[in-house]
Structures are given as C-alpha cells and as structure tokens.
Amino acid sequence: MTGVPWMPVSAFDALNWLGLLAFALAGALDGADNDLDVLGVAVLGVVTALGGGITRDLLVDRTPVALTATADVLVVLAGVLVAVFLVRNGRRISTDSLAVQIPDAVGLSAFAATGAIVAWDSGLSAFGVLVCAMLTGTGGGAIRDLLVGRTPGILVEDFYATCALAGATAFWLLRSAGAPRPTGVAACVGIAFVLRALAIRYDWHLPTVG
C-alpha cells in the first residue's frame, strides 16, 4: 500500500498506478522500437516506471515503495505485457508516436504529483518539493535513455522536466496558501499534463545556450 495520511489509500494508489502503468507501457514500447529482446523490453519498462520513484524514496530516506508493494510491481508488469502484446501483433510503434508520448505525458504528470506529495509530507522545503517532483517524473525516463545510448531527454532542450516543475510549483503554492491538498494535487497533474501535451503538439523546446 502506498497511501498517505490525508488521502484515501485507494485514491493515492490510483494516481501512483496510473503513472506506473503509463511509464511501463512507454518504456517497453521504446525498448521494442530499439529492437531489444524480450528481457530488454521488460527491463526498460520496469526501469522507466520505477526508477524515478526509487530515486525519490532514497532521497527522503525511506525504503523504496517498489521494493515492498507487490501491487505496484504487478501494475508495471501489466504495462510491459500490453506493450509486448501490441508489438507481437505487428504493431510497431515509434517512440515519436502519440501512442508512446501520450502515456508518457500521463506518467509524467501523475508522478510529478506523487513526488510533490511525498516531499511535502516529508517536511521538505519548496526546493525539495520541486526536486522530488522532477526526479519522480523524469528519473526513470533518464535511466531508460542512458540504457539505450541516448542523452537523457531532460538534458537536450526537451520541454519535459519543466512541465513537472511547473506542476509541482502550483502544488507548493496552493498548499502554502492553505488550499486543500487534493486541490494542489489536481493542479499539479493538470498543469503538468497540459503543458506536456502542448509541448508535443507544438514541438516546444527550451532554448540552447550556444
């Protein structure tokens, strides 16, 4: 169980599972697009889904939820199996397609919220909330990119981590102003997802230095 005191267990878990399922699917499809074998596809799906959350939990000095919650692992495996089913049935899906990018955007927004929640409940500062939200939302994808020999997308002008930071900022501002916590969560998820969807639609990128 991954619930937190202020939110019903089922509600928090639903948000967490949404992110896990979406990232596992996106990661596994990425593995298939890179012509990895079955094990490689599974590893990429698992790493994408769990990498950010494990990093976050280690930062706040708690046992990673992924190592204790069987349900989380089952959700991740379900996402991997869906990806394998799609590929085995002849549906080669590019990592640039909406079939990968939309689930990835869902995972980013859901995990930005769970990262912000955990950081807030751990008593971290505004900076800590932003860092945990960003790492939870982007950490798994960064590890995935490294495993397939790519520079992590968050480092090469992609408008990605910015979405998680914007959502987490809204969460922190609302909570600091006394807004109900579910309101902060909804704002975080909504802002992160809408920004990422717009970035995909209009090909937004951060400017380079040079």
UniProtKB/TrEMBL annotation:
The species is: Halorubellus litoreus
Swiss-Prot/TrEMBL keywords: Cell membrane, Membrane, Transmembrane, Transmembrane helix
Could you tell me which Pfam families the record lists for this protein? Gly_transporter (PF03458)
Domain Glycine transporter per the UniProt entry, residue ranges: 15-87, 102-175
Q: How does it sit in the membrane?
A: Multi-pass membrane protein
Q: Any keyword Cell inner membrane?
A: no
Q: Name one GO cellular component term.
A: plasma membrane
- Look up the domain of life of the source: Archaea
Q: Which residues cross the membrane?
A: 6-29, 36-54, 66-86, 126-147, 159-178, 184-204
**Signal peptide interval:** none
What's the name of the protein? Answer: Trimeric intracellular cation channel family protein
Lineage from the top down? Archaea, Methanobacteriati, Methanobacteriota, Stenosarchaea group, Halobacteria
Location comes to:
Cell membrane
